[in-house]
Recover the amino acids of this structure.
């Protein structure tokens, strides 16, 4: 048993020795790879600060130095000029800041590369302001460095300052009871062993070099990192990393030839971000009632674009592109500014449901073809409807299970009337967000037109969606209004004048006709024949007139003779009758 245990112990020690050797080899490989990657002349440090003669850098911990020689990373040849101060107040820099610059290892621009497990020289786990309390002098220095005016002042702070003066005695007594926290200078350590960097309590100074650790970086981005391609680092607020809906006031660029379409892929450049999204255009109705959906953006006016993307602060500039491909026209298709961000926005779209009557009573009618089931009718119960001619009505009750219903109107409708129900529905923007990755094989989302061209699908031609000549319904002809004469006499004059129909001239009389040569010759011949006929009629009429005049003259002569003869005969008759009467009177007188 003892011999077996010794054999197992020897095998375990051998495996442990092999593991240590593999770890050392891996560490050496990492260091060699880092040395090769960052082995280049430090141009910016040599120009600004000059090269250092010391071949070692401080790691930032008191009493420790880095194991890697900076000569392997940074050229140690002195510059051909003296170090020039960047700012006016750099001439008065004290020895503490000089020691601090030496401690931070400004010669080594790449941080701690020699010791993999060591602490980064420019990384502070705990800010000095958290270790040592800032006094009034340090706060004034911080104001002078961070503000252009050398500090800030407001009415509230002036009042606070007056109150602080009254409480200064109490504050001094309390300060004497608190023990002071001593520091060993710029290179010393605080209470927890961290260096007390009093000069840089507000963070890394201007023109300083830091090492940044990025987490959750896509592998495609890491593979495309090149030394000759710089990376711009920027920060966003905590609320800007959440996805939601953003309203943007946008306008089509005047040089872009096409309008922007809703739900079509659009590339936006906003702040630090470039991404693709599916926008939804809308316009605010008069009186701020609702956001009305638009199929296309306005041509020469602003409209509201709602997109699903990270939250953004208001007044952020926005640039819109249709694609990154080479185009013959202007590439920027729209510009705008962010209005607000929210989890969701309400966008309404107008919807008209059309039906037709199939049975009509006095003021009631049964409508079909508006709904598909009795459930839809129950949902629209007591909704307002109206005909195209303007007769209003209301949905009353469902009839059957195929969408027919009974409705009442304020007047009798006709079978040729169309019944319309006007309503609004919600439009939800599509939650699509595709960030742009600066790699050659990044695949952007294609527009609807590109997908149709690639698939060979024609543009759908819907009769209701055409913007050209629309279908015009035939004009309805109503029977003429018939009123009795008694009722017409009681109407005012202006009403009676409207009832009188005006005779319109024939259109053929007004239309200009351009005849051909044959038609012109025929017309000339007809006009000549017409002239001959008219002349014959004139001659005939003249002859008839002469003949009639002669006949009238002869008839008049004969009539005159007859009248004279009748007068003579009557005269003789009257004389004879008078004589006979006289004889009768004489005979009667004689008898008496």
């Amino acid at each position: 048993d003892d011999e077996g245990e010794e054999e197992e112990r020897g095998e375990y020690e051998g495996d442990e020795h092999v593991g240590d050797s593999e770890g050392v080899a891996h560490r050496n490989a990492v260091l060699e790879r880092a040395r090769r990657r960052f082995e280049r002349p430090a141009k910016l440090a040599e120009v600004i600060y000059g090269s250092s003669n010391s071949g070692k850098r401080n790691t930032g911990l008191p009493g420790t130095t880095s194991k890697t020689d900076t000569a392997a990373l940074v050229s140690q040849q002195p510059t051909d000029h003296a170090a020039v101060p960047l700012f006016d107040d750099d001439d008065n820099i004290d020895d503490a800041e000089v020691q601090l610059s030496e401690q931070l290892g400004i010669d080594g621009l790449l941080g701690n590369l020699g010791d993999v497990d060591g602490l980064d020289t420019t990384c502070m786990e705990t800010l000095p302001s958290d270790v040592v309390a800032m006094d009034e002098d340090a706060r004034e220095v911080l104001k002078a460095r961070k503000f252009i005016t050398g500090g800030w002042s407001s009415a509230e702070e002036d009042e606070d300052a007056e109150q602080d003066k009254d409480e200064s005695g109490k504050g001094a007594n309390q300060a004497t009871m608190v023990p002071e926290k001593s520091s060993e200078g710029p290179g010393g350590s605080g209470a927890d062993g961290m260096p007390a960097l009093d000069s840089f309590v507000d963070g890394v100074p201007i023109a300083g070099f830091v090492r940044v650790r990025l987490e959750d970086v896509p592998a495609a981005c890491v593979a495309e990192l090149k030394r000759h391609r710089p990376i711009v680092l920027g920060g966003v607020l905590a609320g800007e990393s959440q996805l939601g809906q953003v309203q943007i006031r946008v306008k089509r660029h005047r040089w872009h030839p096409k309008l922007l379409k809703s739900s079509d892929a659009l590339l936006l450049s906003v702040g630090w971000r470039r991404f693709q999204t599916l926008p939804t255009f809308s316009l605010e109705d008069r009186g701020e009632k609702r956001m009305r959906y638009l199929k296309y953006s306005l041509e020469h006016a602003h409209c509201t674009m709602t997109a699903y993307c990270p939250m953004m602060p208001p007044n952020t500039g926005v640039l819109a592109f249709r694609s990154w491909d080479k185009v013959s026209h202007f590439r920027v298709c729209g510009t705008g500014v962010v209005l607000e961000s929210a989890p969701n926005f309400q966008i309404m779209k107008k919807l008209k449901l059309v039906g037709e009557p199939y049975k009509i009573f006095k003021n009631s009618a049964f409508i079909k073809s508006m709904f598909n089931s009795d459930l839809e009718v129950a949902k629209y119960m007591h909704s307002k409807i109206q005909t195209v001619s303007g007769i209003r009505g209301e949905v009353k009750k469902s009839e059957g299970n195929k969408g027919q219903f009974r409705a009442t109107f304020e007047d009798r409708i006709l079978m040729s009337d169309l019944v319309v129900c006007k309503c609004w529905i919600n439009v939800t923007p599509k939650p699509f967000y595709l960030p742009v990755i600066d790699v050659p094989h990044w695949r952007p989302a294609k527009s609807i037109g590109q997908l149709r061209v690639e698939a060979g699908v024609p543009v759908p031609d819907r009769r209701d969606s055409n913007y050209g000549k629309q279908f015009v319904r035939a004009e309805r002809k109503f029977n003429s209004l018939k009123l009795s004469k008694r009722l017409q006499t009681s109407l005012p004059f202006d009403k009676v004048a409207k009832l009188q129909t005006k005779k319109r001239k024939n259109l053929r009389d007004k239309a200009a006709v351009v005849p051909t040569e044959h038609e012109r010759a025929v017309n000339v011949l007809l006009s000549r024949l017409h002239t001959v006929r008219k002349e014959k009629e004139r001659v005939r009429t003249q002859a008839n007139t002469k003949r009639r005049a002669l006949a009238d003259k002869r008839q008049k002569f004969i009539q005159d003779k007859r009248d004279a003869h009748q007068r003579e005969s009557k005269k003789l008759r009257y004389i004879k009758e008078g004589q006979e009467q006289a004889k009768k009177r004489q005979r009667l007188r004689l008898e008496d």
Observations:
- The chain has 14 helices and 15 strands.
